[in-house]
C-alpha cells in the first residue's frame, strides 16, 4: 500500500482515486477547496486537503491538474515534493475557441521536462497522458490491447509507477518504457491528434498506442 496524493478534483482525479482505493492504496485528494471537494465526493473513503498539505503527507504525488498551469502550481510545492515521485499525467496545450487543444504550450520540449528541471529533487515520471481518462483505469474497455507510455530519469521511480499501473489494470506487456524524461515530448505531442479524434468519434474511450 502506498500513501498517494492526487492533485486535482475533476473526473480524472476522481476516476484514479476510486481505482487506487479499490487496489488498497491510501488516497488523499488535493484541492484548492477541500471542503467543497469533500462535500461533492460520493466515492470510497479518501481524505480531502489543500494541495500543500496533501503533498507534504504523501509518498507519491499524482498531478491531475490542467497542464497549462501545472508548472507554476507544482513549482510552488517544491519543498513538499522533495525526494518524492511525481507522476504527471497532464498535457500542456493551448486551447482553441472550442476548448479543445489547439497546440503545444512547450514547443521546444515538454511539460515533463520542465517539471523535472523546476523540481530537481523530485523524481518525475510521465505517463497516462495519451488516452481518454476512462481508459486510464479500465484499459480492457478497448477492443484491442492499448499502450501506456512511461518516461522518466529515475529507474526505481519508473518501477514503482509500473506497479501502480498494474493496480490500475494495465498488463505489464502493455506498458512501454520510452526512456528518460526527454521522451515525454513525444507522448505530449500526441495530444495534437486528440481534438481530431474527439470531433470525429466523440468522447468514446480511446488510447493512442503502439502496434507491435
Write structural notes for this entry.
The protein has a single domain, classed as 3-Layer(aba) Sandwich (Rossmann fold), CATH 3.40.50. Helices cover 36% and strands 20% of the residues. It has helices spanning 11-22, 34-40, 51-56, 67-75, 78-81, 111-118, 133-136, 155-167, 184-189, 194-201, and strands at 3-7, 26-30, 47-49, 60-63, 85-88, 93-95, 101-104, 123-127, 148-152, 175-179. The strands form two sheets. An eight-stranded mixed β-sheet has the order 3-2-1-4-5-8-9-10, sandwiched between helices. α4 (67-75) packs parallel to α6 (111-118). It is globular. The termini are far apart.
Briefly characterize the structure.
By secondary structure, the chain is of the alpha/beta class. The protein has one domain (3-201): NAD(P)-binding Rossmann-like Domain (Rossmann fold, 3-Layer(aba) Sandwich), CATH 3.40.50. It has helices at 11-22, 34-40, 51-56, 67-75, 78-81, 111-118, 133-136, 155-167, 184-189, 194-201, and strands spanning 3-7, 26-30, 47-49, 60-63, 85-88, 93-95, 101-104, 123-127, 148-152, 175-179.
Amino acid at each position: 500500500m502506498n500513501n498517494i496524493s492526487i492533485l486535482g478534483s475533476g473526473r480524472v482525479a476522481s476516476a484514479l482515486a476510486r481505482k487506487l482505493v479499490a487496489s488498497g492504496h491510501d488516497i488523499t485528494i488535493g484541492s484548492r477547496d477541500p471542503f467543497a471537494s469533500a462535500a461533492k465526493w460520493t466515492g470510497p473513503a479518501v481524505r480531502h486537503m489543500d494541495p500543500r498539505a496533501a503533498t507534504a503527507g504523501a509518498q507519491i504525488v499524482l498531478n491531475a491538474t490542467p497542464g497549462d498551469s501545472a508548472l507554476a502550481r507544482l513549482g510552488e510545492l517544491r519543498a513538499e515534493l522533495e525526494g518524492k515521485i511525481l507522476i504527471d499525467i497532464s498535457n500542456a496545450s493551448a486551447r482553441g475557441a472550442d476548448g479543445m487543444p489547439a497546440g503545444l504550450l512547450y514547443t521546444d520540449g515538454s511539460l515533463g521536462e520542465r517539471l523535472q528541471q523546476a523540481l530537481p529533487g523530485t523524481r518525475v515520471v510521465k505517463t497516462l497522458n495519451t488516452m481518454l481518462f476512462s481508459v486510464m483505469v479500465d484499459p480492457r474497455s478497448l477492443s484491442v490491447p492499448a499502450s501506456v507510455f512511461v518516461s522518466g530519469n529515475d529507474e526505481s521511480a519508473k518501477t514503482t509507477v509500473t506497479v501502480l499501473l498494474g493496480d490500475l489494470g494495465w498488463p505489464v506487456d502493455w506498458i512501454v518504457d520510452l526512456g528518460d524524461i526527454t521522451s515525454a515530448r513525444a507522448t505530449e505531442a500526441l495530444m495534437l491528434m486528440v481534438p481530431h479524434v474527439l470531433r470525429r468519434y466523440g468522447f468514446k474511450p480511446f488510447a493512442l498506442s503502439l502496434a507491435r
